[in-house]
Amino acid sequence: MIRFLRKLWKDRGGNVLIIMGAALPLIVGAAGLATDTVQWTLTKRELQRAADSAALAGVFGRLAGQTVSTGDCSLSNAITRDESNGFVSGKIGTTTCSATVDGWGTSTNKSVAVSISNTQALPFSSIFLKTPPTITATATAAYVLYGKYCMVSLDNNVETGIQFSGNPTVNLGCGMKTNAKGSAALACGGNAKITATPVAAVGQITPCDNFGTGTTFQSYSPPQADPFASVNAPSVPNPCNKDVFPNGTKTTNVSVTGSTTGWANNTPTTVCYTDFTVGTGQTFTGSDLLVIINSTKNNSGNLNIQGSVTCLRCVFVLTSNSSSNPPPIGNVSMNASAALDITAPTTGTYANIAIYQDRRASTCNNFCDSINGSSTSLLQGAVYLPNQNVQVNGNSGFNTNCLQVVAWQLQFNGNATVSNTCSDGSTGNTFNGYMVRLVA
Length: 440
Prior knowledge:
Elements: H1 2-10, H2 15-63, E1 94-102, E2 111-119, E3 134-153, E4 162-164, E5 169-171, E6 175-178, E7 186-188, E8 193-195, E9 199-201, E10 217-218, E11 253-257, E12 269-273, E13 276-278, E14 283-294, E15 303-305, E16 308-319, E17 332-334, E18 339-343, E19 353-357, E20 364-370, E21 378-380, E22 382-392, E23 399-401, E24 404-412, E25 417-421, E26 431-438
Parallel strand pairs: 3-6, 3-24, 4-7, 4-24, 5-8, 5-25, 6-9, 9-10, 11-14, 12-14, 13-15, 14-16, 15-17, 16-18, 16-19, 18-21, 19-22, 20-22, 21-23, 22-24, 23-25
Antiparallel strand pairs: 1-2, 2-3, 3-26
């Protein structure tokens, strides 16, 4: 027996089996920990996707007028999405969620922050851990400044809001935005040459090669608010003159000078006409004026310029005191041969607005408003036609200094050449554009 035991003691066979048996718990534990780590990573990723979606949904919900309050995680069902989208509440353990709404209605970035925590017992690590691990994902989305626009289309239907055709050359020195939806919210064609950035739409921007190098495109962006929504048309004075050339005379020159301090005191010199037509060979010269064009019947009350108009620190308002619904508010027509030198005031109710059309104007789907001018023309300020379509065409070739256009639809076509120049920091030269972005 002693000899057998000595022989067995010296026998080295089976050592590997013994070592493997001793190391097996460590190997199984390492494999289990690796499996749990993969599960932790997957859970973290799913939680992060849910947090990102919830934060973005919270901001978009606020933009749509929905109520999103602190502690609310039912943000457009982003937390309880269906299984095909990955994360399903309750399927991967105990989930808690909290939301924080910051800065809405203030000058801050209007953010929604979401934090999602998941406590989950995993099969292998639970052997070594007394309490299950908690996995947390956080996300913050905000409505942030993301561009400067000087051309805005308020059209919010499924159609084209801004369109380029023919051979226009448009150099805006700023961006453009349309609220139109659909697959061709902003479309371009022909041989148009467009320099503008950013270019944004609520719908899709039709791909084209007409835009300059470096243009930033922003499809599916939030709607742009009407920048002049708080500005209303003035009351029509009584009496109101017949037209800019009284009694139908063929006077070739009219000159009206207003108070140079009127805009600063918000009491501008007001002149009122039932029609403002400056024909070929006629000249209108003015300064510091609030020009009210009161339409009393259809096809009247228009701003029609074929001759020469020089008006410094002036606002042209198309409105009507008619009781009909809708009232017969006139249109804008600037001939390609017209000589323009029009600048907007920089103070007062109508600061930075050169042409204002009453929002009660009926819709116009045939581009019944046109903005053109000769190569020596200058137009500085905003053109506001919120319910109608505006067309820039022909051989206009005029300079626009800090021009803004806010209209229902915009179309550039023909051989129009528009050069918009505005130095950085100029008063009222652009409208701030915003996007919803994850910021943390």
